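Q: Entry one of two.
A:
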Amino acid sequence: MLDDLTLEKAIYIFEKLIKKIASTPYEKDGVVINITVSIGLFHGIKNDIKSMLSLADKKLYVAKANGRNQLVS
């Protein structure tokens, strides 16, 4: 929970994180793995945690369906 962030600030932070992870390959024993991240971001009226996680999860599945490595808010 990031109560003190505006939606705009949260989007900025998570988009920066997505780009950083995508541009930083992971190497182990000579094998390079490129990692991507998809994020579902719920921002709105506080509700019970189960409902908020469900809404974020739905947004995550939209991000994955749209090609991954992105943020859906």
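Q: Entry two of two.
A:
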Amino acid sequence: MTNIIGTNGNDTLLGTNSADTINGDSNDSTIPVSQDNDILTGGGGKDKFIYKINSYNFSNNTDTITDFGGVGKGVTPSAAIIAEVDVIQFQDYYLTAQNLLLTQNSSNLEITFEDVPSAKVILQNFKLENLDNLPATSSRPAIGNILFNGQTSITDSFDVFDANSTQTYLFNKNTVTFLNDLNNNITGLDNSNDVVNGQRGNDKIDGKSGNDLLRGGTGNDTLNGGTGNDTLNGDEGEDSLNGGKGNDVLDGGTDNDLLWGGEGNDVLDGGTGNDLLWGGAGNDLLNGGRENDTLLGGTGNDRLNVGSSNLDFLGGDHLLSGDDGNDTLSASGYANRGDSDNYSSGNNTLNGGAGDDYLIINFSKGNNLLNGGDGNDTFSKNYSGNDTINGGKGDDLLSYTSDGSY
């Protein structure tokens, strides 16, 4: 560990490849963050902390800033606050406002990014509501706490609700918003690509029209994408996700979730828990998890899957129903030629419905029921248990092997 202390001037302080303690002292300091888990103190003045993945391996860091100066609540910070506002500059393609995740953990604020799971900055004794970027006014320039990749000056890239705010609308179009820990009821903006991040409350978030990204956070949340190609992440809690019209991506996260794709070619992932996934109209992809899930394809040529594409899947009694369309239904385990450790163990039911469907049961210890329904269906059964197959109407084909060969 190296202890680095600045002077009373405007210093640039560069750490080593070890876990450093860096103190900028009392003036404006620039601190590029090094490769390990550093403890950073800006000291007085306007300090800048620079994180760059390619140069400093930020993807393996947990760095702590002990005295970060926030913009504070409201839109008219005092001169004293402005004089002490610190900036974190993130320099990498993935370090954008859209990927930003802010989590209040007791008295500390944790900063992470969705596509960089092990990267973390901890602001000690800092509240979420004090972090913000504010646009310029007639009396002052723009001020803020975060510069994202490609930015050289502060822009109003994100908004933060005050801890006690009960407002029901977003501040700006095409921006990133962080809610508070209350049970929020938020309506997005039409013709706007909104990014809305829930926190610990049971939130209701309606994205309206536009290509929206909605994250529920902790709590039992209701997310409605509206018109547009939306991404909805339930995260923790028993969530209800409705993609609406458009080609949407829905992820239930943990616990027992309800996912409805709506109109369009959607991708639904239940995550953990006993989930209900309904594709709706369109050619959809539905992925179940490790518990007892129900997958309903709806109209269109859908792919319903629990099994080998998700190695967490080993058990659970799943119901897969293709409904209308030429659907592919699969409830299979995973094995390396004779290794039964990853065989699925649940008793699954696969209903093809109308259309020429493809029903697959491979590497399964369970007693499964496969119903082809109307149409010319194909059944694939390899290395599985005592299964029942009902072809239904149409000219059906059964492909069967007992030793796992093809």
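A: Comment on entry two: The first strand starts at residue 3 and ends at 5. Confidence is low (pLDDT under 50) at residues 9-16.
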